[in-house]
Amino acid sequence: MAAEQQKRNVVIIGGGIIGSTTAYYLSHHPNFNKQRDTITLLEATKIAGGASGKAGGLLALWAYPTCIVPLSYKLHQELAEKHGGAERWGYRAVHCGQVDMYGVLAKSKGEEDVNGKGKDDSVSLQKRTQKAIGLLRATGVPKDLNWVAADGMKAYEEMGTPLTTAQVHPYHFTTSMASLAEEKGVKVVYGSATNIEQENGAVKAVTYKAKDSTEEHKIDADTIILTAGPWTKTIWKPAPISALRAHSVTIRPSRPVSAYVLFTSIDLPRGNNKRGETVTPEIYARPNNEVYACGEGDTLIPLPTSSDLVQCDEFRCQEIFDHVSSVSEELRDGEVTARQACYLPNVSKGGGPLVGQTNVKGLLMGAGHTCWGIQNGPATGKLLSEIVFEGGARSADIGSLDPRKFGV
Ligand SMILES: Cc1cc2nc3c(=O)[nH]c(=O)nc-3n(C[C@H](O)[C@H](O)[C@H](O)COP(=O)(O)OP(=O)(O)OC[C@H]3O[C@@H](n4cnc5c(N)ncnc54)[C@H](O)[C@@H]3O)c2cc1C
């Protein structure tokens, strides 16, 4: 009861999917009182300007960690039903499969060839755990998966069905969460957090530089929630969060394609300047005649100071397009509508994400969501709202994600 009556000043640092869903669940919590409490979402550049706006958007009951996945999957369903998510952020159930293929399609006339660059500095995003791979079962190519080249197919294995796998458009989902939170009284402030002030072992205030100015400001806070994705360590040094760059493209296919997300392994043909290598892009059919494709990560360029300074390597984007074009005419003859890069927030010691109270009173964290932050955003936000307004996580046992276990 005490927690319900006490005035709360909450500041969330970072407006990616984790900060935005946290703002949503805090502002929709029955103990939040708009007249009494304040919730501020502090974002350095743009809501969903980082990975949360540039991810694939796959949701899966077979994702990890298992302590929050079922809750988050269910919350995605509930949010979509409550707020018209099918229309607003492209929520839908999808098939998901692993395809092993030969790249058999020649390039369209006039396209440049790719050389072998990039393979040696590529880092797997680790979405397919050995366990998940072990659970795959061979089913043959489904009839309605008719947009991959039949003569290039080596094997198809089902990874998920529409009962266990879904998708959202991450940018539209994240910005909708932030808007719905704003409607309930959350104040969105654009500025970069520079310091977390403490007094007697408890948080006291956040200082920040306003966007496009050097002016320093301060917001008093009894609760500060760190949700700055790969930038979390720049604000709070003990956080064991590292960053991995990844490129992606969106394509308008030459004709609408059926609702499949494909994890691929493609043996490229040996060409003039190719080494006959195997590549593993992921391909996500989306509503509204869009296909998203991403490649492996790289460690060539360290994390820049903000999301608007992320360097996108056109060559890596072209490579992704060339690789997926070698197995699908619909993609090869389509139009590339975006070429982009972003940084994945990884946990340097493995495991994670880190969700909950840290060693400093009033300093909470929701960070290090690796390649499943879109899937696990809603559960993270809900559990953090329970910790703030009810004194502890109620909807799932997240002891294994406690930041204090990671030395934070
Ligand atoms: C290629 C790719 C594909 C992916 N596909 C999927 C997928 O299919 N399904 C899935 O579940 N996940 C996927 N992910 C993972 C997912 O994108 C991330 O886990 C998730 O977006 C992380 O969200 P976040 O809010 O923690 O971080 P971010 O999205 O990086 O947000 C952090 C925010 O903090 C802000 N910030 C930084 N510093 C400050 C500061 N000092 N003050 C204020 N604000 C600050 C930034 O501007 C940014 O907006 C993918 C990731 C990549 C790279």
TrEMBL record:
Example GO biological process: retrograde transport, endosome to Golgi
FAD dependent oxidoreductase domain boundaries: 10-386
Pfam family, one: DAO
GO cellular component: cytosol; late endosome
PANTHER family listed in its UniProt record: OXIDOREDUCTASE TDA3-RELATED, SARCOSINE DEHYDROGENASE-RELATED
UniProt-recorded name of the protein: FAD dependent oxidoreductase
